[in-house]
Hints:
With 375 residues, this protein is α+β, with helices and mostly antiparallel strands. Among the domains are: 14-25 and 210-372, no CATH class; 79-157, no CATH class. Helix content is 42%, strand content 21%. It is built from 11 helices and 9 strands. The strands form 2 sheets. The protein has a 5-stranded mixed sheet with strand order 2-3-4-5-6. It has a 4-stranded antiparallel sheet with strand order 1-9-8-7. Strand 4 and strand 5 form a beta hairpin. Helix 4 (84-101) packs antiparallel against helix 5 and helix 4 packs across helix 6. The two termini are 27 Å apart.
Amino acid sequence: MAFDNMDYDFEEEDEVFEQPLTYEEEEEPASGGSQFSDLLAKVTSNPLYVGIGALVVGLLIGLIFAWGIWPVKYVDASPSNLHQNFQLDWMRMVVDSYNLRQDNALASERISALGENSTEVLQLLVANPGDQVSQLALQNFLNQYNPEAVPPTDTTTDTGTGEGEEAAPSSSRNSTMLLLACAISGVIAIGLAAFYILRMRNRQPGGQTAAARAQEFSRQAMQTDYEAMGQDTPIAQWMTTYLVGDDLYDDSFSIDSLTGEFLGECGVGIADTIGVGEPKRVSAFEVWLFDKNDIQTVTKVLMSGHAMNDESTYARLEAKGEPVLATPGGTIELVTKTLRMVVRVMDMDYGTGHLPENSFFQRVTLELAIWSYNG
């Protein structure tokens, strides 16, 4: 039994079916375009996946900047930071310079630049001086050089080499590059967040979720007047609506007696879907009734026309409960030890697209009415 006073002037979500996969493509997933699109839609609709993706993209961009665009460059390093081979070369230059200048102070200053390794480096050079010319130069250095004759010097005095002046600009450049990299990463993160928010809003006309719009349909639905039909008034009566896009649809209600005693629960949830991608194309609902005085929950499956006529789908859903074809105005009865529930299909529409005809629901409004049952 449909009702005429409902306002259906809600925007339909036909756009989500503009490019769905065909039924044959689902049976034989062949190519790349549609599957990639569905996979991308599924990934970007999950906040966790979006966060992980943003983290990975940020790390990749950071590595590109750190190793490719702005790699770390070491400047103004002291000889004590060099590899041992280069420290030996440094010591050979000290020897050659001393033989030319005979300046104990300058030689001592250059040797001390090697730090704690200066003695070890000199011993290594003595052990392997090189060719005959290098041996004579080293021997002359050892005979002439007298470190005790070197007057004490202030190692902190600026030698005028300009190293101090270079440090500040280098540090400033590094800071600027770091700030720029952080700014770029921040812009990318904000862009990803904006893309996700806009995508979600575009999927929900008027900024409303499918679940919120479904509640509007339920509020506008007129409950069945069972008393006018000559039947007892139900102890509880609810309306629930499913709209395509409400992928988490699962509505449940607590059943209480007129005195407030808890009697059980009932509800409706998604039992099966068809196709791939988002939003889900729901092809069957499970309607259930729990009685606190009974040992089991009674369940029936409300199926679309295609699901009802498809042998494999029918056999698979039959394991969940008795299959029932959904028809406008149709009713389903569930009975337990002390409760009886009548589920009436108040209104329903099938979705359209490239999937088989009457295969999934665009909108379903159900009325759940409960009576006490004495067997």
